[in-house]
Amino acid sequence: MPDILPIRRALLSVSDKTGLVEFGRWLAGQGAEILSTGGTARALREAGVPVKDVREHTGFPEILDGRVKTLVPQVHGGLLGRRDDPAHLAEMLAHAIAPIDLVAVNLYPFEATVRAGAGFDDCIENIDIGGPAMIRSAAKNFASVVVCTAPAQMAQVMAAGGSTAAMRREFPAAAYARTAAYDAAIASWFAGQLGQEFPPRLAFAGTLAQTLRYGENPHQKAGFYLDGTARPGIATARQVQGKELSYNNLNDTDAAFECASEFEAPA
């Protein structure tokens, strides 16, 4: 696998536009063709970054109120086609499918929409379909395509001057973790809508908040993961002073908090 691959064609479609314009300018400076959709394309154009609408690239319009934008062979074939397979290259050529070297995608803010107390229909419309599909396609073909799911990863690509072999191997882990967490949040929300106290399959995804001083015993390691729940508790508390917490510190503090929470009024 070559170490650094140049970015000749990139597809950018982001909800969180942190670092987008800087990255777009860098890609344009490298001579890359930038494909984009909707608000991402608009933000780039307003900043003077040359961009090509995905519908112009694919020859297929956005349909169904934007629900279908990138779910076409010209996008996924460009992501999944193996560059080291002559048969793949010939098939791509026959179907006018151009290779895509980089995808930068972050997803519709489903979790934030739910936390904000949005209604059922708004939550449904914030379930991203095309974004996870592109992330998964790009991550599967990591030998040739680099997938960025966070602004910090775009910065790494710029700093390296292209996609390195290490990035192309490392970023898929973050990509699949993100789509797994996204799907877990959606599954949990749907279960809640159905009133399922004990759903037949439980999906959980957490974000590492901190590495703990040690686990249940001093020779063990432990990490503290948050699931994004806004409910008051130890997970959303802020440590004011003292040394780093251990697993036992958190367990004991949580037990004390939950005991106190049983009282509805001062005792």
Question: Could you give a short description of this structure?
Answer:
With 267 residues, the chain is α/β, with parallel strands linked by helices. The chain is built from eleven helices and nine strands. The protein has a five-stranded parallel beta sheet with strand order 4-3-2-5-6, with helices on both faces. A two-stranded antiparallel ribbon has the order 1-7. A two-stranded antiparallel ribbon has the order 8-9.
How do the strands of the widest beta sheet line up side by side?
4-3-2-5-6
User: What profile does the largest beta sheet have?
Assistant: 5 strands, parallel
Sequence stretches where pLDDT stays below 50 over 5 or more residues: none
Count the beta strands. 9
Report the CATH superfamily of the largest domain: Methylglyoxal synthase-like domain
What is the highest CATH level, the class of the largest domain?
Answer: Alpha Beta
Mean pLDDT rating: 88
Euclidean distance between termini CA atoms: 67 Å
Helix content: 40-55%
Written account of the structure:
The chain folds into two domains: 4-193, Rossmann fold (3-Layer(aba) Sandwich); 207-261, no CATH class. Strand 2 (9-14), helix 1 and strand 3 (33-36) form a beta-alpha-beta unit. By secondary structure, the protein is α/β, with parallel strands linked by helices. Helices cover 44% and strands 12% of the residues. Helix 1 (20-29) packs parallel to helix 9 (151-160) and helix 4 (73-80) packs parallel to helix 8. It has eleven helices and nine strands. The strands form three sheets. A five-stranded parallel sheet has the order 4-3-2-5-6, with helices on both faces. The protein has helices at 20-29, 38-46, 54-58, 73-80, 86-94, 110-115, 120-125, 130-140, 151-160, 165-193, 247-261, and strands at residues 4-5, 9-14, 33-36, 52-53, 102-106, 146-148, 163-164, 207-211, 223-226. The N and C termini lie far apart (67 Å). The longest helix is centred in the C-terminal third of the chain and has 29 residues, at 165-193. It is globular and about 75 Å long.
